[in-house]
Amino acid sequence: MEQTLQRNSKLAEPLAEDLEERVLSMSLEEGSDSSGTNSNAGHNVEVPENTHSSSQLLDRQTPDGNELEDYESRDESNLKNLSVPTLKEQMTPWRQNNRATANTDGSPIERMDKERGGFPFLGMDKFSIKQTVSDKDLSILQHQLRSSKLRISSLEEIVKGLNTGEFNMTLFDALRKQEARHEIDVLKTNLSKKQSEISELEKQLELSKEECQKLRQDNLDTVEMAEEQLKNWDEVSHKVDFLIADILHNGSHFTEQEAQELNAAKELGHELIIPKLNALGKVIHQSLPQEDVIANSTQLDAKNYITSDEQIGSQMEIEIEQLHKGYEGFIRVISTNLDKSAILEDELKLQLDRQQQLIDKIYAETSIETKRDKSHISNVKSLQELISTLQRTIREKDQEIAMSETKYQQSEGAKKLKLQNAKLNKELVDLKNLEETNQARWEELVTQLEDELRDCNAANSKLADIIKRMSQDISGLQQANERLTNETTDRIEQAKEIQKLAIENESLRSEIRKLELPRKTFTQQRDLEFHNFRQSLLLHLTNVFEVLKRVIKRQSIDQSMKKISTIQQFEGISNLRNVQSKFESLYNFIETALDAVVESYMNLVLDRSDESSYSRQNDESDSSDYQLRVKELQRKWLAERERRKLDSNAAELRIQNLETEAELLRNQLNGSHRSSR
């Protein structure tokens, strides 16, 4: 509420200032008029010193918020502070001599003051008029009083309107209307721009119809050519596979590496024909003898001849070169087709421009025909007017003839008049016939023109339908063109990727060849170390079994020796698991045999100790020596057993290391084979 009051007060301040200026100007004008009349009448008017500005009447900010009550109280207080203007003595010096004899009781203003109580509605208790005032001055003052009351009431109404919000709403409505008009103008300008843009776009659509059709046809041709080339490419790859299979079947002089390369090339897909050709050419170059290479640079005797293998290799080289040339020709065809499509696009643009020119000509011709129709219609109207004028003249002549017949029936010139009448009737009939023929002709012409207009309208509707279809066809052609361009770009990228893959395959194969030599040396060294280690273990085991022959059965020893012979048959580290199982069985047998020998030996020693207890007194010295020997043997046995355990642990550790190395090498070989594939 306070915010609305403040806003209304801000809106009322300029209005109040304007009204204040107008009231002051009017009061000054009226004061000047009244001062002139008073000077003529001999009065002296005194202007009050404690007058207040009318802006105090429009001060609307109140502390308690009750606007109307505060305004009325403020209005009453301001009115009480006002005073009626009085006359000064300096303004009427000629009346100073009669000042003592002046009859103030007879003054009409004083009588009015006494009767009315000194203007109680204005709060003026005292006023002094020292000289007499005329009736004219009184009427002027009353008029000023009425005008001031009217101004105050108008100001009150304005303030009330501001408080209720009606005046504010009218201002806001006016501002809103002005803003709405501005927005409407902006929208109209935008609408005109949009319409112009729409017309331009429609023209562009019409221009791009035939262009898209031709592009579609060209793209279809390129796609068909590409499909034919791909079919030829598949046939070539089948032929290459057949040649590789034939070479592998008939050629026995190839190494394992070359055969593996040919098999890997054969297993490649139809898309990777370049790696196949490279592998085939490489194998053929490697398989050719040195004499064939020398024959390319030097002259051979006439008796030298070329073998069937050399002929096959040369034919294969020729076919590979032809395949390379065919692939390059395929790429050239695709590039030429793209160039042709660009040229066709330019031609399409030119043809679309011509089509637009033809449409403009058709539009101009239709406008000319409409103008002709309008001219024909105007001519028909003029002829109809001429016919109506002729009919009027004919009627007037008929009337004249009738009058002349009545006047001159009995005169001598009646015959002449009859003849003239007959002539006129003939002329009238001729004119009527001519009018009918002209009217029929004009009606036929009008019907013809109407038919032509119908035909033009039908042609325009057909053109509109054709334009719609053309726009739809253009959109479809654009989409098809985009699809075809995407397909061609994808195929070109696939061809480039195939070339890159072939190059990468060759580089990987060269790296594999570089890695195979150190791998072979490493495997050979590893196999040699494993063979030496195995032979040493087998030698020790045979010695152990030779020792154990003395105390163990011959059958068990023969079984363990058979296991040693089977271990000798396993060559290479690839049979490590089988060898390890055999070694474990042998070690278990040795452990059980040693355990049995030691146990029997200990029993024997204990038996001998029991027998020697009977002769302890006699053979004390012998028993002590015997015990020392037994302890020595036990110590040696334990030392030998510990040594064998350490040897077996070292052998197991060595075998585990060899297994890990073998696994790493297998992984490397598998990875190299996968990358080569």
Automatic annotation (TrEMBL):
Keywords: Coiled coil. Residues 177-218, 345-511, 616-675 form a coiled coil. It comes from the Eukaryota. Residues 1-117 are annotated as: Disordered. Residues 108-117 have a biased composition (Basic and acidic residues). The keyword Transcription regulation does not apply. The keyword Iron does not apply. Residues 33-42, 50-59, 93-106 have a biased composition (Polar residues). Transmembrane segments: none annotated. This is Mto2p-binding domain-containing protein. It comes from Huiozyma naganishii (strain ATCC MYA-139 / BCRC 22969 / CBS 8797 / KCTC 17520 / NBRC 10181 / NCYC 3082 / Yp74L-3) (Yeast). The lineage of its organism: Eukaryota, Fungi, Dikarya, Ascomycota, Saccharomycotina.
